[in-house]
């Protein structure tokens, strides 16, 4: 957990924190559900595990399956960032690209698991053990904040099991009498793929699948096609916690990537930076108040998907000459 320094001063929020999940072994929060899911697969005597993934779950499953001595099959969209594909491949994952969106990869993984009796650890709500891994963030925050509960937790959201898991963890702590409140949860999506936000803003409790995603935040570009009920469960959490759901543009996301890196030294992929982009939007609209404590979950490392930020590179080239350097510095 990182206490905001420069961004706290710039925004006026003295209790702004970043839960940096890029420090996990494979560089993303997916290590939490995969650690539990793969452990259960080992316990059940399963030899083959499978997941659908937009990239981070792929790398994580391959990592933990390798450690456990299991074979892993991974179904990903064609558009998955090369860094994530490479990481999964190097760790021994058997990767198969599926045409179309993440929802198509999800459908193929589900069919394959049933047909070949593989254990499906897809990190939506499909595997109950994997979801349990997500709630460990709540336990860590409870201890890292000296047993205090933050007023708001902002979570990058695709299907939304992380929103559910974190809230479940705090709900359990509250049930045990260890806390006197629960956090308000903010599900943050990209404008180019925001089925949950669309339902929330319309006042509906029914989530409709999105069409073709169009966003730089590939990690959360989940149309929920065929499992719209996952989004409806997230909506329940948002309402129960008196929270909100908000969508941010690609420009806002890219701005958040640079803000986090240049002010706090946190290099995040676009799909992870949406939590801070969402915070900026909600605080500017006075939904989140200055005196409230806020945790932005940063779900994955920038090296997972550097492409969008790299497109903005404008790096000069000079010869090995001091005068040329001086001329450039002017």
UniProtKB/TrEMBL annotation:
GO MF terms, alphabetically ordered: L-serine ammonia-lyase activity; threonine deaminase activity
Which intervals of the chain form a coiled coil? none
Kindly give the InterPro entries that the UniProt entry links to this protein.
Answer: Ser/Thr_Dehydratase, Thr_synthase-like, TrpB-like_PALP, TrpB-like_PALP_sf
Q: Which UniProt keywords apply?
A: Lyase, Pyridoxal phosphate
| Segments crossing the lipid bilayer | none
Could you mention a single GO BP entry for this protein?
L-serine catabolic process
Q: Kindly indicate whether the keyword Iron-sulfur belongs to this entry.
A: no
Tryptophan synthase beta chain-like PALP domain residues: 2-300
Needed cofactors, names only, are: pyridoxal 5'-phosphate
Which PANTHER family does its entry note?
L-THREONINE DEHYDRATASE CATABOLIC TDCB, THREONINE DEHYDRATASE, MITOCHONDRIAL-RELATED
Q: Which family does it belong to?
A: Belongs to the threonine synthase family.
Q: Which NCBIfam families match?
A: thrC
Protein's name in the database: Tryptophan synthase beta chain-like PALP domain-containing protein
């Amino acid at each position: 957990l990182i206490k905001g320094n420069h961004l706290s001063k710039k925004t006026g929020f003295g209790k702004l924190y970043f839960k940096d999940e890029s420090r996990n072994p494979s560089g993303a929060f997916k290590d939490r559900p995969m650690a539990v899911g793969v452990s259960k697969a080992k316990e059940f005597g399963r030899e083959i595990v499978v997941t659908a993934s937009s990239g981070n779950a792929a790398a994580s499953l391959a990592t933990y399956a390798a450690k456990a001595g299991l074979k892993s099959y991974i179904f990903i969209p064609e558009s998955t960032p090369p860094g994530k594909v490479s990481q999964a491949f190097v760790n021994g994952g058997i990767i198969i690209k599926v045409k179309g969106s993440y929802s198509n990869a999800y459908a193929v993984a589900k069919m394959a698991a049933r047909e070949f009796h593989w254990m499906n650890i897809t990190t939506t709500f499909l595997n109950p053990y994997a979801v349990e891994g997500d709630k460990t963030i709540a336990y860590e925050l409870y201890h890292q904040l000296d047993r205090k509960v933050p007023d708001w937790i902002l979570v990058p959201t695709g299907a939304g099991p992380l929103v559910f898991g974190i809230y479940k963890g705090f709900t359990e702590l509250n049930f045990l009498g260890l806390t006197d409140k629960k956090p308000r949860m903010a599900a943050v999506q990209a404008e180019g793929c925001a089925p949950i936000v669309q339902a929330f803003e319309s006042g509906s409790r029914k989530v409709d699948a999105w069409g073709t995603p169009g966003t730089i935040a590939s990690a959360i570009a989940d149309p929920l096609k065929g499992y719209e009920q996952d989004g409806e469960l997230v909506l329940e959490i948002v309402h129960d916690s008196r929270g909100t759901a908000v969508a941010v543009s690609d420009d806002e996301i890219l701005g958040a990537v640079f803000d986090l890196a240049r002010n706090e030294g946190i290099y995040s992929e676009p799909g992870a930076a949406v939590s801070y982009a969402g915070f900026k939007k909600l605080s500017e609209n006075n939904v989140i108040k200055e005196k409230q404590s806020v945790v932005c979950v940063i779900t994955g490392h920038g090296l997972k998907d550097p492409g969008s930020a790299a497109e903005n590179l404008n790096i000069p080239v000079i010869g090995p000459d001091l005068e040329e350097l001086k001329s450039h510095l002017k």
